[in-house]
Amino acid sequence: MDMTITGTDRVEILLVEDNPADVRLIRETFKDFKVANNLSVARDGMEAMAMLKKTGEYASAEKPDVILLDLNLPRKNGFEVLEELRQDPDLKRIPVVILSTSDSEKDIMKSYDLHANCFVTKPVGLDEFIKIVMSIENFWLAIVKLPPA
Amino acid sequence: MFPGASVLLEVLLVEDNPGDIRLIVETLKEGRKDYNINVVKDGEEAVNYLLKRENYKTAVTPDIILLDLKLPRKDGIEVLKEIKGDDSLKSIPVIVLTSSNSAEDIANAYKNHANCYITKPIDLDKFVVTIQSIEDFWFTIIKTSKNK
Fold first, then answer.
1. In chain A, which residues have pLDDT < 70?
2. B96 close to B63: Cβ distance less than 8 angstroms
3. Which of A147, A148, B3, B127 could be bridged to B110 by S-S, CB 3.0 to 4.6 A?
4. Quick check: A147 and B130 CB within 8 A?
5. pTM
6. Does B32 have pLDDT greater than 90?
């Protein structure tokens, strides 16, 4: 593939997720993927913004190529993170995949209105969950052209 | 197609190349689900369709839009700007599907809130695989709004 990513040849992913089981599952699935990638994890919305803005202890954080964002998060929820991202000239083009347990029309509408790139509902079954994570990685890491870094 | 069957996913394909139209429509027809695919061949027609103007007064608002960039009369980026600037249309996912591989076009599409950007592969088999991937991801896994 001819994706060009400045500095490194791997795709940087930021996962914003507070559920440890979900983090583990997503991490394991991405580790086995054919496209080289590096997954960083933020456990709440405040930590996600600190990593994205490279403040404090995150001064050397990598700018992600793709963000996987949960909605229901401690301290700052996913909508607030999305809204802040989309207003930041340096961050607004990064594709954001919403990955949430929510299936509500209201949350889906609000996410797209705030310019989420897509909305995925986490399935309850483990096999289904893995299948969906694999679809996300295949689509966003192998098929799509990501914005230039 | 079955008019009135709201379970059908409504797809709007904005594409002027007849070969690409045929390939995309055929691939989707052989896919896992039934789609209602409407095709418009230039940017002006796309906007008329979405705003239900002129010949499109009875058009159905699409669930998803596949948008080429190089289009007659009004280019894809202009169409994208109109969609994402309209409160009643901006929540419809727009997949940019173009022959362009330029960093400028990619950046410009994301800046104007394209939901994703895909370069059409030149190789026919890869083109079909790409269309199937779009189908798997966007038509099967993704939640789109039903609130039209």
1. 1-8
2. no
3. A147
4. no
5. 0.88
6. no
Which residue is closest to B146 within chain A, CA to CA? Answer: A105
Alpha carbon distance, N-terminus to C-terminus of chain B: 20
pLDDT digits (tens, 9 = 90+) for A97-119: 999 999 999 999 999 999 999 99
Q: In whole angstroms, give the CA distance from residue B69 to residue B77.
A: 6
Q: Chain B partners of A148 at a C-beta cutoff of 8 Å?
A: 103, 106-107
For residue A61, give the 3-state DSSP assignment.
coil
Task: Tokens for A133, please give them.
Answer: 């994570």
In angstroms and rounded to an integer, the radius of gyration of the C-alpha atoms of chain A is 14
B115: nearest CA in chain A? A117
Domains of chain A: 11-143 (3.40.50.2300)
ipTM of the complex: 0.82
CB B116 within 8 Å of CB A117:
yes
In whole angstroms, give the CA distance from residue A31 to residue A48.
Answer: 21
Residues in chain A: 149
Chain segment B88-110, per-residue pLDDT in tens = 999 999 999 999 999 999 999 99
Domains of chain B: 9-140 (3.40.50.2300)
